[in-house]
Design a protein that fits this description.
This protein is mostly helical and about 170 residues long. The protein has 2 domains: about 120 residues, Arc Repressor Mutant, subunit A (Orthogonal Bundle); about 40 residues. Helices cover about 45% and strands about 5% of the residues. The protein contains 7 helices and 2 strands, in the order H-H-H-E-E-H-H-H-H. The chain has a two-stranded antiparallel ribbon. A hairpin with a 5-residue loop joins strand 1 and strand 2. Helix 1 packs across helix 3. The longest helix has 24 residues. It is elongated, with a radius of gyration of 20 Å. About 15% of the residues are buried.
């Protein structure tokens, strides 16, 4: 199963919104900075999440984005389906090939899809928030994660974000 960049952006945007106090609104700009996502593309992602009833958009000076429901009520399945509604499985017909084989492949794909959706339904935003503060994957790849003397990770953020967790 391949996960699109759009879905990954949506998950990380929702995680940032999930860290905010209930009812707090986060501007698109602040969300882009905090989640380290491209602002222009993030707006498209947020609009899709609003359309699916996962995120609320409030206009005005004090406007911004917030979650419609609590993090424990939002599942990965809902996020995935906001962008990639599970299409009906399809196997293209190839002239001269067995329809029985095509049917069997289709049957297996359908079962695999159902299992995947079931597993995505089990994981909530709250659970992902409980995974702790995630290190940027570029820092892990490049070996540039700074460490304190106690061995815990310390990340310069260029200014503290009031919605970031304290590492828990």
């Amino acid at each position: 199963m391949r996960v699109s960049r759009t879905i990954v952006y949506a998950v990380y945007a929702i995680l940032q919104l999930g860290k905010a106090p209930p009812g707090a609104r986060i501007s698109r700009n602040q969300l882009a900075i905090t989640a380290q996502l491209p602002e222009r593309f993030l707006l498209e992602v947020l609009h899709s999440l609003v359309a699916k009833g996962i995120v609320r958009s409030t206009r005005g000076v004090d406007g911004g984005f917030s979650l419609v429901r609590a993090p424990e009520e939002i599942t990965l399945r809902q996020i995935f389906e906001a962008f990639d509604s599970p299409p009906t499985p399809y196997v293209p017909v190839v002239d001269g090939q067995s329809l029985a084989v095509d049917g069997r492949i289709l049957e297996v794909i359908q079962r695999a899809r159902e299992v995947a959706l079931c597993e995505l339904q089990k994981v909530t935003v709250s659970e992902l928030l409980g995974c702790g503060r995630a290190e940027p994957n570029w820092a892990i790849r490049e070996g540039t994660i700074p460490y304190t003397s106690e061995g815990s990770n310390s990340f310069p953020t260029g200014g503290e974000n009031v919605f970031m967790s304290d590492g828990n």
